[in-house]
Structures are given as C-alpha cells and as structure tokens.
Amino acid sequence: YKRITTKSLVDMKSRGEKISMLTAYDFTMAQIVDGAGIDVILVGDSASNVMAGHETTLPITLDQMIYHAASVVRAINRSLVVVDLPFGSYQSDAKEALRSAIRIMKESGGHAVKMEGGKEIKDSIKRILNAGIPVMGHLGLTPQSIYKFGTYTVRAKEETEAKQLKEDALLLEKLGCFAIVLEKVPAKLAEEVAKSVSIPVIGIGAGSGVDGQVLVIHDMLGMNTEFSPRFLRRYMDLHTEMTKALQQYSTDIKSGDFPNENEQY
Ligand code: KIV
Ligand code: NA
Q: Which atom of ligand 1 is nearest to the CA of 114?
C-alpha cells in the first residue's frame, strides 16, 4: 500500500474521489481499520466518551490522547493518523498550542493534529502550521464547546452562524489547513462550504455534498445502543453479536463444555 498523506487527500478531492475516515483509539482496532483501507484514522477526543465513559470530551488529557495515538500509530501501514488536540491543550495561547501539538507529533508519531474552531484559534493554527505540523480544522458542532452551545443539535441553521461558518472555512483554507471536519450542519450549507474551498471537507451529519465522511467506529459497528442520531448508519449490530458470544462462553464454562479435550495440554 502507498501511504496516505495530507497531500493525497487534497489530490483525492480534486479527482472527485471521496475520503473515508473513522476513529480508532487502540492498536487492535487501528490494525483492522488500516487493513480495511480506510484513508484517515482519527484518534478523536471522543475517546473521552467511548473509551473512558465520560459524558463529554472535555475531561480527556493530552497525556491520555498521546497514549491512544501512540497505540494507533503502531498499527498503521497506510492510513493517515490525525490526532485531536484535547480541550485545554490549545485554547490559552498559541505557544501552548504549539507545545501540545509538538508533544503529540513527538510522543505518538501521529501525522497531523485536529483543532476545533475558526478565527478564535487562528494564531494557534498559524503557529502550529509554521512548525511544519499539518492541521485539520473542525467547524460546525464542536463538542469541546458543548457548555456554550447547551445542546448537541444541528448547528448553523440561522444565517449569522452559517455566514460565520463559511468565513471560518475560507480562513482555515487560507491559513493552510489540509482539511476540515464539518459536524452536524445542514447538508445544503455543508455542500456550499465544500464547493467554496479546495481542501477536503469531511462531514459527520453534514450530508453527501462534502468530500468525505467520518464516523465514530464504536457507533457504526453498533457497539453503542443508546446513541442514535439520524446521521449514524450502523454497519453491524456488534452489541448483540458480542452479547451472544459472551453468553455462549459463560454457558459453556458452566456446563463444562469449555475447555474440551483439544483445548487443553
Ligand atoms: O472526536 C471525534 O470522534 C471527532 C469526530 C466525530 C469528527 O472529532
Ligand atoms: Na473530536
């Protein structure tokens, strides 16, 4: 396999080839995702929810993100690995942001960082890009700002927020970001944004008019039964499949069926 780079993603957009992206937080899962030919692996701060059981993405630390990212990177042959800068690691000032991004690159071996926000984090994005670290933007519903929004519903339904979002997308492109994640905004707006920039726009709950799609892997595998937003397509019912397997295992132990003669020394 030829390795995916930030440049190949921009080339894919110009060819009209859609980009596939999924989250992963650990070695074994990342091995499967990479082997399946997914273009981009996101070590998302959704690890805070999915791996650690927190209600929001806010509590996860930079050290914890580095641990997840390093585990993912060890599994990769082809995919581009993008690592979320967690809440609190880049908002104070541009120097702190650069220090955090450098730690991710050095200590995990990830290939790029992702940051939530537009013009309000412009200086930090610039500084990180100046150090040679590729940055993926993230606009629309930005979960690190959940306490400002108050809800996880669709963003930018009104004109003022939509206008700001379009400006932010142009700004991110101008600064030199290689891609933008656009989360939970109306499909028509997302398509407009994707058409207005030459860098790929990767959507989650942003419709089909964008340049690629991302989902949280545990959600699309159906491991999570409670989280059911409209944009989520479940490709497996792994919760049910796993539960059946675990129950069978327990039954086999209790009946004395496991282990059998061939399963011992
Ligand atoms: O952390 C995450 O999983 C994300 C994706 C939903 C884009 O940021
Ligand atoms: Na995230």
A: 8
Per the structure, the complete domain to which residue 242 belongs is given by: 237-265
Counting other chains too, the contacts that 27-32 makes at CB distance below 8 Å and 24 or more residues apart are: 27/71, 27/72, 27/74, 27/75, 28/75, 29/217, 30/71, 30/72, 30/73, 30/74, 30/75, 30/76, 30/79, 31/75
Say whether both 164 and 40 belong to one domain.
yes
What is the tally of structural domains in the chain?
A: 2
Closest Cα to atom 2 of ligand 1: 44
pTM over 0.90: yes
Residue 1 resides in a domain: no
Give me the tens of pLDDT residue by residue for the chain, a chain 265 residues long: 699 999 999 999 999 999 999 999 999 999 999 999 999 999 999 999 999 999 999 999 999 999 999 999 999 999 999 999 999 999 999 999 999 999 999 999 999 999 999 999 999 999 999 999 999 999 999 999 999 999 999 999 999 999 999 999 999 999 999 999 999 999 999 999 999 999 999 999 999 999 999 999 999 999 999 889 999 999 999 999 999 999 999 999 999 999 999 999 9
Residues 133 and 252 in one domain: no
Give catalytic residue positions. 183
